[in-house]
Amino acid sequence: MSAIDLVLDPLFRLPLITGLAIALVLPLIGALLLLRDEWLAALGLAHLATASALLGLAFGLPAVLGAPLGALAGGAFKSVAGARGNLAYGFMILFGWSALFLIAANTSLGATLGHALVDGQLYFAGALELIAALALAGLAGAALPRLMPRLLRARFFPHDERANRLPAHRWHLSFDLLTALAMAIGTATVGLMGAFALVLVPAWIAFRIAPGWTWTLVICALTGVGGFLLAYLAALALDQPFGPVLVAVLIALAAAVETGRGLIGRTRLKRPPQVR
Amino acid sequence: MSAALLRVEDVVAGYGRPVVGPVSLDIAPGEVVGLWGANGCGKSTLLNAIAERADLLAGRILRRPGLVIAYQEQTPVRLPSMPVTGRELLRFAGASMQDMPAAIHAVSGRRIDRLSGGQYQLLCVWAAIAGRADLILLDEPTNNLDPEREALLLEMLDPSRLTRRDASSAQTVSDRGVLLVSHERRFLEDACSRVVAIA
Fold first, then answer.
1. Which of A2, A64, B46, B66 is the most exposed place for a label (fewest CB within 10 A)?
2. Class of domain B6-197
3. Closest alpha carbon to B12 in B56, B78, B76
4. Is residue A67 part of a domain?
5. If you average pLDDT over residues A118-145, what whole number do you get?
């Protein structure tokens, strides 16, 4: 059976659609996180999501329902406590990692399931994961157009909110909770590092080459979805775990873009000045 | 507080301890008021107190009800990577591109992280002037500007730019004001309708 046949197999349709929704939403959130210099928070939230997913599994709760509990708690804490900066996110990662492996070691699930969450278990995505991913896409589609102008304005004109006594905590908290939910559902499907890579790498590529914000969002979406499809096919064809393949594909895309930029830059430098 | 946009009454402001004051001043619609003083005398602290970024230790600051403030700090936010064009920045700031000076218009399609310090400074000042704000606070807006761009800034601060078209008629009304901080006395005298010295 070829990889294309596998993709078209009804058994793999649910994971494919679930993953596509995740691969569309996470890079858009990543663009905002990168602009807010909060991309490391995504890794912290992903660790918290993994730990709470595992804890939920121990109590018979599906990972896609357990994961948001820890991530949302982390997102709410981050927003309410005003915990920003690499130091706060570093502690979030350490706490999540420690909790993850302590829960894994002290429940009947063991480390195997913990590793499954870290690597991603996309191929086991069922109707529940699909509903969660589509609900996330719908929520992001409704919330981001409203949140984005406010968040960008807050980034570039940070004192206007306070000077005008605006209820800024509303949109900052909304974005933190949306990010937490997206990381939780992403982690429960494409894995911890897969979700983090979808947040970081497409946004990084877009920030390098996009001529403006609209194009940043377009490039994020295309890179996320394109990278996901490539990884999906490659993982099936080569019989490899999906999460690491997704990360490898996204890094390869980033390297290709950077190499292309370098070549273009070198060609421009070498071109002799035109004589008129 | 009659028709003033902002009234500062015997204000002492600082960060835990007093830095500036007591200071009193009014800003009326249509006015460009300059705050002048030596470096470190507390001009920016007074601006920060108006924008609620510094502690108000004594006195009071009265705003016209519903007053919208635009605050442009000394150094505009400059991130290592900003994939946003000048036009997009103006759109996010709710600023109009109508009557925008040609020098800013010419670079408004570029990414803002590819603009020079002076071009970006002027773009940010324009975002404040051409936005919805009733009171525009500008802290040392001549930073990064060469003499040519300083002249452009003077043109941008012309009181005619502070007018707005009345919704009910075709007439324009002067209902906005600017409070401008600078250590350059000559620039303030050229740009402002009134200069207040801070001791």
1. B66
2. alpha beta
3. B56
4. yes
5. 85
